[in-house]
Amino acid sequence: MENAGPSRLLAAEASHSGRVRSNNEDLPYCDAERGVFMVIDGVGGHAAGEVAAWIARDLILARLDRQTGTAAERVREAITLANNAIYERAQERIEWRGMGCVLTLAVVEGGKVVIGHVGDTRLYQWRDGCFEKVTHDHSPIGEMEDSGRITEIEAMRHQRRNEVFRDLGAEWREPDTESFIEIIERPFEAGDALLLCSDGLTDLVTAAQIRLVIEQAPDDPDRIVRRLIAAANEAGGKDNVTVVYVKRVAAPDATPAVPPAVAQAASARDSAWTASTQTASTQQLSAPGRTQIIHLRAQQEADSQQRRLLMRSLDDTEFSPMARGPAWFVSRWAMLVYGLALGLIPASVAMALRNHRTAEIEQPVAQAAPQYRNLTVGAGRQYRTITSALEEARTGEVVEVFPGEYPERVTLKDGVTLIGQRPREAVILAPALAGAAAQSEEIVAVVARGIKGARLVGFRVAGDAQRPLDVGALVINSEIELTDNQIVGARRSGVVIEGALSSATLRANLIRANPGAGATIREQASSRLLNNVVIENGAGLTAGLANRASASATEVRAGIELINQPQVVLAGNIFAANRAGAIAGLDRGRRQAAERQNFFLRSLSQFGAAETQQSASSSAIQR
Length: 623
Prior knowledge:
- This protein is of the alpha/beta class.
- Helix content is 34%, strand content 28%.
- Strands 11-12-15-18-21-24-27-30 form an eight-stranded parallel sheet, with helices on one face. It has an eight-stranded parallel sheet with strand order 13-16-19-22-25-28-31-33.
């Protein structure tokens, strides 16, 4: 579909029920000629979600057709009309009670896009090489992700990820009702692109994976939506999944002239088609129940077929020699058609060759496996070891590790997320070293060396007397995230971050009972420690248990050790019972800032109270 002018819009949409659900309550809308794009996700059960989605679509389109007010005003009023219509219809039938929907609407006008958004569907924008999430999720987990309190992966696996606190249909609303419609206006120029999607995509496919799909074919909307649907289904297909993609490209310098007779005929047929679809939509809106949905879809399919037949009628009816008789061959119409045909022959040949080449190229793509996979590790899974899965993983992919013990040294990989299927039930144990190696090599469980974009999420990294561990996670010149892990039993340090190119984020980890320091960050390294629990570290080892490489293993240590003033952000962390203090190596100014932004407890008995305080604060922010 295209939108002519100084620039044009290339767009495509796709929707799939997924692998688990039998019906599809998602509804996409994609009209590049009018510049209107929507993703609607219905909720309610008994097909009520589908009813809500169709009501929303029809009411929104009806209001947008009336070109009164600004685009933002039209969007706000359209969504409000849809909300109130759904609310009224829900009162008519018991099985429709509680039905509703969430949606994202984009209206392109001039050089900008106006976005109306309610719920947890999403809109991303590609602009100047940046892929940005524009809308905000109106949900408890979405707010936590948007604010940075949890990571994208944590949000995707959270048990409350499907809850929303804004939708259409829950109550009667006015256009200016607070905390209802999020209106966003942004530039949208040649080279920019928009991606609208339901949570069936974003609950299973990361933003990095979505971006890579777009980067591979940014001017091919059909390929993008097809591949994203396939990626969601390959990742489990737990929900309906819907994708709309629109790209604005510069219009050609010249547009081929269209004969007036042809333009008038096409215009008349378009008007007839528009009138027929609007009439059918209005009539079907009042029909009850499941029959309404089935019949309306059948009518739309018939309308689409009617339009295709009408658009072909220049060849099949009005200009058909067999229909008009022999005299037609010498008429003025015949002369016009002969001229057009002669002029179009080279273009037709070129188009046929191009289509032939395109078919040859596209066919393998359609049959190929999806670009991204979730690799699974564990007994009876694809891989038995984490190392073997990481060797096969590609940038943007996720390695999911099922509960169990994994005695191996894990080397993280560029752009790959390593995640525990159940939080902290997958345990990484350093491999046992024998002979001379046991006396000379440092025992490390997880290593990140010279990589970026890697994540370690939801593991327990452990050492003990039977399987000693010097360093839980060693980060050297790498950009990584460690989130929701438990690191225990490391003799030198639970986490070590070093190197001028290191930029590590530690978020929501439990760093506990490491005989060495909880974490050690050396000069030139940059790191952020957010919302971690750092307790009972630094007690040291007895002389009999201290290993050959740790001369200081018998010394008491701090919870966090900063060597030569590295660049560190410390916020929301809880410190308690670390033998040499909470943080060592801070200058006076930064120590005062750290004292304001973190929790320092005198004993572990205060730990439960601190957790309660943090939970209450989070709940207040969510509401």
